[in-house]
């Protein structure tokens, strides 16, 4: 039995009309809000974001520690 193609622009037959997980149906969402939602607060990207924040905290914490207690490392 031959399969006929759907007419152009028909779209999927299983469309439910509801937004899928991770998508919102607000057409007026700004690009900044979309970036924050998709890249920063997305559960799939949480481990990478935590890794970046941890690295930044260690880096700036080291700078603060050296500025605070750096003289203690110089022999008298």
UniProtKB/TrEMBL annotation:
Domain of life (superkingdom): Eukaryota
Name under which the protein is recorded: Uncharacterized protein
Organism, scientific name: Hermanssonia centrifuga
């Amino acid at each position: 039995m031959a399969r006929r193609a759907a007419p152009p622009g028909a779209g999927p037959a299983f469309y439910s009309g509801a937004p899928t997980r991770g998508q919102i149906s607000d057409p007026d969402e700004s690009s900044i809000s979309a970036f924050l939602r998709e890249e920063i607060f997305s559960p799939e990207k949480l481990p990478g974001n935590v890794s970046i924040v941890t690295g930044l905290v260690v880096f700036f914490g080291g700078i603060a520690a050296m500025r605070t207690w750096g003289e203690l490392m110089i022999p008298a």
